[in-house]
Amino acid sequence: MSADPTETFPALDLPFIRHAFLCKVPGVDVTVEREEALRRLGEYHAEARRSPDFEGKTFVTAEQVHGKNVAVYGAGSPECAPGADGIVTNERNAVLGIYVADCCAVYLVDPANRAIGLVHSGKKGSELGIAAVAIETMCEQFGTDPANLIVQLSPCIRPPFYEIDFAAQIADQCRASGVKQVVDCGSNTAADLTRYYSYRVEHGKTGRMLAMLALH
After folding, report:
1. Are the C-beta atoms of 9 and 185 separated by less than 8 Å?
2. Residue 19 burial by Cβ neighbours in a 10 Å radius (0-12, 13-18, 19+)
3. How crowded is the C-beta side of 179, counted as CA atoms within 13 Å?
4. 101 and 81 in contact (C-beta within 8 Å)?
5. Which residues contact 14 (CB under 8 A, 6 or more apart)?
6. How far is CA 215 from CA 34, 77, 109, 124, in A?
7. What are the structural domains, with CATH classification, of the chain?
8. pLDDT digits (tens, 9 = 90+) for 52-109
9. Are 154 and 107 in contact (CB under 8 A)?
């Protein structure tokens, strides 16, 4: 395993944003249910949120119910959006966070209007088109032009380890929404259990990767 369990993506190497994808944490037993796994990973995840890129920002996440609701984070919003699987914001004091273990974390960046979004999209979310919902929400809330958006797909499960290529579905939905720049890292979570957690391969008793995105 790589010495650094954090990944970044070249497409998001922009001066006005900060991002990270926290992979498998070595030495932590996560062969337990989700909430306990997150508790055991909590110290490492909190340390990452205290890094210079994210320190001092409010950590904002979503309930993640495998739906298509996208919350808008602003002043007075809850730090965990109920009933949502995505969050969009133009607040500089927030770091968006989404947990995944085979599902895809979809990063959305609007360079023109300085707005961002982060979406949890697995089989159900992709079928419901949550990435397209997030794009529409950013258009309504921040005046985003989809043609200006940068969309980055995180590591996720893919064929032949899974019967559906939902990463391809997400990319198609984004392009159908008018996005010109969709970048897929191509990594398969089920193919490298030294680097990633896989809900499918590890039969649900596993950890979660953490995707983070913030304006700088």
Report:
1. yes
2. buried
3. 27
4. no
5. 109, 111, 150
6. 29, 17, 9, 28
7. 6-215 (3.60.140.10)
8. 999 999 999 999 999 999 999 998 999 999 999 999 999 999 999 999 999 999 999 9
9. yes
Residues 6+ apart with CB under 8 A from 71: 62, 77, 81, 84, 86, 87, 88
CB 103 within 8 A of CB 204: no
150: phi then psi, degrees, rounded to nearest 5: -110, 125
Which of 91, 100, 119, 128 is closest to 41 using CA atoms?
100
Residue ranges with strand state E in 74-174? 80-81, 86-89, 94-100, 104-110, 115-121, 150-153
CA angle 156, 139, 151 (to 5 degrees): 25
Whether the predicted model's global pTM rises above the 0.85 cut:
yes
